Amino acid sequence: MAVAANLAQYRLYIGGEDVDAASGETFEALNPTTGEVWATHALAGAEDVARAVRAARAAFDDEAWRGLSPTRRGRLMMRWADRIGERAEEIARIEVSDNGKLYKEMLAQLRVIPEWLYYFGGLADKVEGRVIPLDNTSVLNYTLREPLGVVGIIVPWNSPVLLTMYALAPALAAGNAVVVKPSEHAAASVLETLRLADEAGFPPGVLNVVTGAGEAGAALVDDPGVAKISFTGSEATGKVIAARAGSRLAPVTLELGGKSPNIVFADAALDAAEAGLLAGIFAASGQSCVAGSRALLQRDVYEELLERVRQRTASIVLGDPLDGGTQMGPIANPAQLERVETMVEAACGEGARVLAGGERAALDRFPAGLFYEPTILYGVGNDARIAQDEVFGPVLTVLPFETEDEAAAIANATRFGLAAGVWTRDVKRAHRMARRLRAGTVWINTYRAITFNSPFGGYKESGFGRVNGAEAIDGFLQTKSVWTELSEDVQDPFVMKI
């Protein structure tokens, strides 16, 4: 495997310092565009995770953080947001080196990420308890909303900084300390971003990053010093994490996979629907939890729209994600590329027909790059594995439907429930479908719209709990009830009053 000339070297970030793993071991980061090793990371083990959790707990208990007023805590988050905005271009390029996503997409994310810190920083001093009205007017009963302690955040490789911020911003606003474990396939941008918190004035240990593989993640989930786990990733891993955390009664927020339907009715604006179908699956090379990987097309427009999407798919430009003319980059890592290839081959073996793509792409400029052609499959039912299992790659399965009832039935006939798209000019139908679809997000005449102040999360095996929006902060707080007797009367239970 080739190695880049200027190899970046990253360490763990614990207690406000860059430190080596206790074992001294490292692992390599692969640039999926070039196929070259471009960086090395410290390989964290259980000992390193325990050290990070101790640092976070010490910071949580220290007056420098715990004694900070919510307003000042919010201002600190906003200063950090400014630092991220100043470094957006640099961090975006680092993310491209790690996961191969388009620079213009990563830059757009990095430029909007500060909004998460502005929003939740502004919410920090809006966390309030309440006074409970009691029959006994001599007793004052009120509630306090308090942080949990140390929160463990585990994120995948497809949008590492953005997905970290989904959990990190509300966790900090609530007053917690955090330990982040990014994917071993995309850790550099998370390290670069969280280290900027030191420049903003965060006390050491409030934010920590441990890099590594499954051992580090398991150690974080199992550590008794971690009060809660927030995980974004596959449903299979999410089930394991929920079970392990549950064995010690630690709560979890899970944002898992999807097999999202993108439903086009015959009365839709077909130009907009065509663009929505393409963007829904081929943006980010299909490596998105909300990818619209099932296109449900009403019979009256099935042939026309399928042909339009086929033609556009055939013209998608694969190439260097740093090039502004590139429309789709590589698959992020070799294991994921193999998964995509295997699932498409299996689908064809089960009767699926290839309308476009269906193979690994060979680019002269990047012979070792991990590219896969944008692919359209048709000719199978909704019960086929390719229509039920998440590919997490640029693979669209097309399914016809006749009626609104049939569209809802097909859309809901999956173990997932993360998102769905509906394309129609009929406003009544649009809102009927929004109510019928069992998904945490429903987009009407648009797709992949997500923002800091609108809740996001899944139904069924797409997870539970919500990130983004004001209610996200509730998942990182606990409620305490305080009772105070205001009268001078002696409340003696052994003195009977008749």
Descriptive report:
With 498 residues, the chain is of the alpha/beta class. It folds into 2 domains: 3-256 and 462-481, Aldehyde Dehydrogenase, Chain A, domain 1; 261-444, Aldehyde Dehydrogenase, Chain A, domain 2 (3-Layer(aba) Sandwich). The protein has 15 helices and 23 strands. It has helices at residues 46-61, 63-66, 70-86, 88-99, 103-123, 160-173, 188-200, 214-222, 235-246, 270-282, 299-314, 334-349, 385-388, 404-412, 427-436; strands at 3-10, 12-14, 17-19, 26-31, 36-42, 131-132, 139-147, 150-154, 177-181, 207-209, 228-232, 252-255, 261-264, 294-298, 353-356, 375-378, 395-401, 416-417, 419-423, 441-444, 459-460, 463-464, 477-485. The strands form 6 sheets. Strands 15-16-17-14-13-19-20 form a 7-stranded mixed β-sheet, sandwiched between helices. A 6-stranded mixed β-sheet has the order 10-9-8-11-12-22, sandwiched between helices. It has a 3-stranded mixed β-sheet with strand order 1-5-4, covered by helices on one side. A hairpin with a 6-residue loop joins strand 6 and strand 7. The N and C termini lie far apart (89 Å).
Give me a quick take on this structure:
This protein is of the alpha/beta class and 498 residues long.
